[in-house]
Design brief:
Blueprint lengths: L4 H11 L3 H10 L4 H19 L6 E8 L5 E9 L2 H4 L2 H17 L11 H17 L4 H19 L5 E2 L2 E5 H12 L4 E9 L3
Antiparallel strand pairs: 1-2, 2-5, 3-4
Helix pairs in contact: 1-2, 1-3, 2-3, 3-8, 5-8, 6-7
């Protein structure tokens, strides 16, 4: 199916992805913008997974201070080359991640960063709550999986729904930028300061 340049332009503006990839996605989805966005997101995650093993020795440290001065964030995001580290879109990503951290106060970058003793303590608390509700042991284990997943979504930056678009997680937002910029990108660490804490 032939798609109009207006639709290609609209999809490009919504996603920031190259014209040829937008055109191809629209052709694959018969001109349906929403389905094309979903298709590009899936392709982005696949490309991001392929690039995830590549070393990231360049990058930037960004800062975000909330307008009233009550919350501040320092975040280190790495990429593969100095060229991308200076790219305007990469700098936009750093700003977006900084604002998100200020708004949601995650404690860890990803689930792998959560100490095992913290997870065990959470499981113990949830298990006691569920037992006091009279739940049988075989059901408690299934419920615990969901509770730990929710814990990760609350406490781990990469698993959190993106503050500006809760339909996607932060890891999917980063995958979109990996797809767009063509390099592996990683959030290395962050520190969040809140006045009085």
């Amino acid at each position: 199916m032939a798609v109009s340049m207006a639709k290609v332009k609209e999809l490009r503006e919504k996603t920031g992805i190259g014209i040829m990839e937008c055109k191809s996605a629209l052709e694959e989805t018969n001109g349906d913008i929403e389905k094309a966005i979903e298709l590009l997101r899936k392709k982005g995650m696949a490309k991001a997974a392929k690039k995830s093993g590549r070393e990231t020795k360049q990058g930037r440290i960004g800062s975000y201070i909330h307008f009233n001065g009550s919350v501040g964030v320092l975040v280190e995001i790495s990429c593969e080359t100095d060229f991308v580290a200076k790219n305007e879109r990469f700098l936009e990503l750093i700003d977006e991640i900084g604002m998100h951290i200020a708004a949601t106060a995650p404690e860890y970058v990803s689930p792998e960063d959560v100490p095992q003793e913290v997870i065990e303590k959470e499981k113990e608390i949830y298990r006691e709550q569920l037992k006091s509700q009279g739940k049988p042991d075989h059901i408690i284990d299934k419920i615990l999986e969901g509770k730990i997943k929710s814990f990760y979504e609350e406490k781990c930056l990469m698993e959190q729904p993106y503050a500006k678009d809760p339909k996607i997680k932060i890891k999917e937002l980063i995958a979109q930028f990996i797809h767009e910029l063509g390099e592996n990108i990683k959030v290395k660490r962050f520190t969040r300061y809140q006045l009085g804490e």
